[in-house]
UniProtKB/TrEMBL annotation:
Known function: Required for the efficient initiation of filament assembly.
GO process terms (BP): bacterial-type flagellum assembly
Family classification: Belongs to the FlgN family.
Source species of the chain: Vibrio caribbeanicus ATCC BAA-2122
InterPro entries: FlgN-like, FlgN-like_sf
Protein name: Molecular chaperone
Length: 141
């Protein structure tokens, strides 16, 4: 049963770490720090994989029934489940924030492209494209 307790404790540690990574990710999103967002995403994936692997190991453990019969283990399992539910909610919120940030970026990018489009583009005698900043705006007559 000591091996099962250590697996459950490890699961709790990973769930706590995941909630912290999600908090860090939220901060990175709000500060628009793309390198930190990417770092958090990699860490988040690693922790989720670790949680799944540990869960599989717990699922086939010969003392699995003690998760319900042992009060201490049952409390720890309940705590893990609550943390994982919190993680799911935080991840949803972060995903929505990332979508809003992406939408803002796309709008800004489109605006920039429209502004650049006003510069004008034409072709030279060799058929190469050429940007002309005065296309039709410097006529004197």
């Amino acid at each position: 049963m000591a091996a099962l307790k250590s697996l459950v404790d490890f699961q709790l540690k990973n769930a706590q770490e995941l909630i912290q990574v999600l908090s860090d990710e939220k901060h990175a999103i709000t500060s628009r720090n793309s390198q930190e967002i990417e770092k958090c995403a990699h860490r988040k994936i690693a922790l989720i994989n670790q949680l799944q692997t540990t869960d599989q190991r717990i699922g086939v453990h010969p003392d699995i029934d003690s998760l319900q019969t042992d009060d201490e283990l049952a409390k720890t399992v309940k705590r893990i489940q609550l943390l994982v539910d919190d993680c799911k909610q935080e991840n949803l919120i972060n995903g929505e924030a990332l979508q809003r940030a992406q939408l803002s970026f796309n709008k800004l990018n489109n605006l920039m492209q429209q502004t650049q489009g006003k510069l004008g583009m034409t072709y030279d005698a060799g058929g190469q494209t050429k940007n002309v900043t005065t296309l039709g705006t410097n006529l004197k007559a």
